[in-house]
Each structure stands twice: as structure tokens, then as C-alpha cells.
Amino acid sequence: MKLFFASDLHGCLPATEKVLAEYRKSGAETLVILGDVLNHGPRNPVPDGYNPPAVSELLNQYADQIIAVRGNCDSEVDQMLLSFPMMMDYAWVMLPSGQRLFLTHGHLYNSNKRPPLKQGDVIVHGHTHIPVAELDNGQFIFNPGSITFPRDGYAASYGLLEDNQLSVVTFDGEVLAQTSLS
């Protein structure tokens, strides 16, 4: 199983094009989008290349490969443009190992406010725009960073789950954070 994670696209067409090119190159079967898909949000500037209708058109081509959750900037109006469901606050993915991935945006649940998780489970969230891949008190925390508005001096990044390893990677191929689920 290979999963590709993207978060906080915020309606930026050039960033979405880059992330979809990397997704295709990665060979992943599923694109997990962790919210803030089309809207830039009131606290962010309007990104260069802001084009929510074009972003939705592009993403809709991958609708059968996407698992998405709602971010704090997402609304029912956004859902009207997208042909895949994205209004859920969270989703679960069961790994072949029996570990569970709890997928959420990060504004309701996050590394500091976790849902009930078992040892070895993973909370996967965006929202902070800061990459993380670590084990914390027996549970894994994974944040792929942001492709549109990276923070704290980090480069734009995405996430991968491959061969039981979680990695946050820049578009230049630099690994920003990594942890093994074993």
C-alpha cells in the first residue's frame, strides 16, 4: 500500500499541478487530501495562481483515487465544485498491519488533541503547515506540511506512506521528516 498526502492547497493552481505531478510519479494508489482545498482563508494572503474552479477541475479528474477531509477553510460551496466527498471532519484508513490512520485537517483534532487512538496508530493532519513525522507516547504524528503556504522556513512539501515508512518530502526530493511504523 502506498499513500500520497497533500494538505492546505488553498486554491492555488500551480501548487496543485505540482502536487498532482508528484502524485503520478510516486505510483501511489490513493491521494489523501487533508483539507483546505479551494479557499485561501481569511488569515492567509491570496496565493499566486489562485484559481479554485481550475483546482477543482483538476482534482475531479482523480476523484476515484482521493480520500479527503474538511479543513477549517472548506465549505459546502466548495463541495459543490468537487466530485469527491470532502466535508467529513475525519476519516479512518486501516493498514494491512492492523494500524489505523486517523485522517483529519488539524483544527478539531491534532497532535495535542487526539481522538482515542491505540498504541501504534497514526494521527495524520495538516493545518499547521509544518512537517512532522514522529512517534509520540506510542502513537505516530504525521503532518505533510503545506504545498501552498509552508511555515517556519520549510519548503513546500507532501507526504508519503510507503514500505511502512512515513516521509515528508519537498518538491526537490529533500526528506524533511521521516519515521518507520514498525
Automatic annotation (TrEMBL):
GO molecular function: hydrolase activity; metal ion binding
Keywords carried by this UniProt record: Hydrolase, Metal-binding
Ranges for domain Calcineurin-like phosphoesterase: 1-162
Cofactors that this protein relies on: a divalent metal cation
Superkingdom as given in the UniProt entry: Bacteria
Enzyme Commission number: 3.1.4.-
SUPFAM superfamilies: Metallo-dependent phosphatases
InterPro entries: Calcineurin-like_PHP_lpxH, Metallo-depent_PP-like, MPP_YfcE, PdiEstase_YfcE_CS, Phosphodiesterase_MJ0936/Vps29
The keyword Hydrolase belongs to this UniProt entry's keyword annotation: yes
Pfam families: Metallophos_2 (PF12850)
Keyword Secreted attributed: no
Family designation: Belongs to the metallophosphoesterase superfamily. YfcE family.
NCBIfam families found in the cross-reference section: PRK09453.1 (NF006988), yfcE (TIGR00040)
PANTHER family cross-referenced by the UniProt entry: VACUOLAR SORTING PROTEIN VPS29 (PTHR11124)
Protein's name according to its UniProt entry: Phosphoesterase
